[in-house]
């Protein structure tokens, strides 16, 4: 939807195909770093998004399961960029509201794409909906079909399946009015991580991360989490108790191995389809927003689609792959289980001033979009 908004802003006519009745993952929260908010500023949607988010928490940082802070920063401090947190469903509504009626066609699945055979040719999408399978020709196809993209192989045939990181996440939002928290942050234990962020309406968005075999499910996810996080500081047990088990989303954390290209024959991969990354820096969606505005600018400035897509690939691949590598490294460190390694990690975090510890994150979130 972000790519559609950006492309329309540079004068293109766009059709978005969505296989479900509504976009997936709507039952959870999302954090938008300043790099993503600058894209939304360009779309003139930043104020709407901010109005749906809770105020930035007064305190944030990293703790250990007993509740002792390893590092703590106050709202508005120079070291921690302001992060806007809202429900995904609300972000989707804002993006959808910026598109004209009929632009989004739901319950239509893109089952394949044929890149243009020559530079002068056009790519074709094969789409399956209630009326059967149809062919849609376009000047440009944006394959933004997520981590498990089925279109990716048409652009980068050598790409294998996404790789399982070895850990799984659980996400939830507490029902409105049950709990509120003025602080936010992550707590790192041994091979376990828990984070929470306030949302509007006295709701809290929380997530947990644990090593687990891929594809497993527990009959009662909440009971299993309560057991695993028993003894962790408040509000962690209360957040889990407040969230109905059937509202907890369990996701195996995958990532897309580095692709040699994001473009081929008038088709551009965008978002998780191009660079699905582990969520450890909260940047996957932010990078998708960056992709959208860069793609539209390249298309507006390029002499033809082929040269525009080359510029998009050159502009996006190095940055997004570097962010994905940084996210994986962060996930790896936060999942350490060896007691000596964990003690050393915690000591290093405690002794490093937040300004220095958070510098890599600031470098990512300092990004500013080109003007469309
Ligand atoms: C636990 C967790 C926490 C995260 N937290 C954050 C965060 O705080 N901040 C952040 O920026 N990112 C976060 N991310 C990453 C973020 O969710 C993704 O990077 C982002 O959703 C990618 O957007 P996308 O549009 O590329 O893909 P998706 O969000 O997966 O959207 C793809 C869409 O395409 C549709 N689709 C798929 N295949 C087809 C098809 N063949 N035909 C038609 N439609 C199709 C799907 O139904 C879906 O609506 C997190 C990820 C996880 C797993």
Topology diagram in text:
Elements: H1 2-9, E1 16-18, E2 29-32, H2 34-42, H3 46-51, E3 59-63, E4 69-74, E5 84-87, H4 88-97, E6 104-106, E7 109-114, E8 124-129, E9 132-137, E10 141-143, H5 152-155, E11 163-173, E12 185-188, E13 193-199, E14 203-211, H6 221-228, H7 236-242, E15 249-255, E16 263-264, E17 267-269, H8 272-275, H9 284-301, H10 305-334, H11 339-351, H12 354-357, H13 359-365
Parallel strand pairs: 1-6, 3-12, 10-17
Antiparallel strand pairs: 2-5, 3-4, 7-8, 8-9, 11-14, 11-15, 12-13, 13-14, 16-17
Flavin-adenine dinucleotide is lined by residues 17-20, 23-25, 30-31, 109-110, 144-147, 150, 169, 171, 207, 251, 271-273, 279, 282-286, 288.
In words, what does this structure look like?
With 372 residues, this protein is α+β, with helices and mostly antiparallel strands. It has a single domain (2-365), classed as FAD/NAD(P)-binding domain (3-Layer(bba) Sandwich), CATH 3.50.50. It has helices at residues 2-9, 34-42, 46-51, 88-97, 152-155, 221-228, 236-242, 272-275, 284-301, 305-334, 339-351, 354-357, 359-365, and strands at 16-18, 29-32, 59-63, 69-74, 84-87, 104-106, 109-114, 124-129, 132-137, 141-143, 163-173, 185-188, 193-199, 203-211, 249-255, 263-264, 267-269. The protein has a 7-stranded mixed sheet, with helices on both faces. The protein has a 3-stranded antiparallel sheet with strand order 7-8-9, with no helix packed on it. A hairpin with a 4-residue loop joins strand 12 and strand 13 (193-199). Helix 2 (34-42) crosses helix 9 (284-301) and helix 9 packs antiparallel against helix 10 (305-334). The model has no long low-confidence stretch (mean pLDDT 94). Flavin-adenine dinucleotide binds at residues 17-20, 23-25, 30-31, 109-110, 144-147, 150, 169, 171, 207, 251, 271-273, 279, 282-286, 288.
């Amino acid at each position: 939807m972000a790519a559609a908004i950006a492309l329309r802003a540079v004068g293109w006519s766009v059709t978005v195909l969505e296989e479900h009745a509504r976009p997936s993952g709507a039952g959870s929260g999302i954090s938008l770093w300043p790099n993503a908010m600058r894209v939304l500023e360009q779309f003139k949607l930043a104020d709407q998004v901010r109005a749906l988010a809770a105020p930035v928490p007064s305190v944030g940082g990293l703790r250990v399961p007993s509740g002792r802070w390893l590092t703590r920063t106050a709202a508005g401090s120079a070291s921690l960029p302001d992060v806007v947190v809202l429900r995904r469903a609300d972000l989707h509504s804002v993006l959808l509201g910026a598109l004209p009626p009929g632009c989004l066609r739901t319950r239509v699945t893109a089952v394949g794409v044929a890149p243009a055979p020559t530079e002068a040719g056009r790519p074709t999408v094969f789409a399956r909906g209630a009326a059967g399978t149809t062919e849609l020709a376009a000047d440009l196809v944006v394959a933004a079909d997520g981590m498990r993209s089925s279109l990716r192989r048409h652009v980068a045939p050598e790409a294998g399946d996404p790789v399982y990181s070895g850990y799984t996440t659980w996400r939830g939002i507490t029902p409105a009015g049950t709990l509120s928290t003025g602080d936010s942050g992550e707590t790192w234990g041994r091979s376990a991580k828990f984070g929470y962020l306030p949302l509007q309406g006295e709701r809290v968005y929380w997530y947990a991360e644990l090593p687990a075999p891929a594809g497993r499910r527990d009959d009662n996810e909440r009971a299993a989490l309560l057991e695993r996080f028993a003894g962790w500081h408040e509000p962690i047990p209360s957040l889990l108790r407040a969230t109905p088990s059937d509202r907890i989303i369990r996701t195996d954390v995958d990532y897309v191995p580095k692709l040699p290209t994001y473009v081929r024959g008038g088709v551009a991969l965008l978002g998780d389809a191009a660079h699905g990354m582990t969520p450890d820096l909260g940047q996957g969606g932010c990078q998708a927003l960056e992709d959208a505005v860069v793609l539209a600018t390249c298309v507006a400035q390029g002499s033809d689609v082929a040269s525009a897509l080359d510029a998009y690939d050159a502009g996006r691949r190095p940055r997004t792959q570097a962010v994905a590598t940084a996210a994986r490294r962060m996930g790896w460190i936060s999942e350490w289980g060896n007691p000596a390694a964990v003690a050393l990690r915690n000591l290093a975090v405690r002794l490093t001033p937040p300004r220095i510890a958070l510098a890599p994150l600031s470098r990512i979130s300092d990004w500013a979009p080109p003007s469309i």
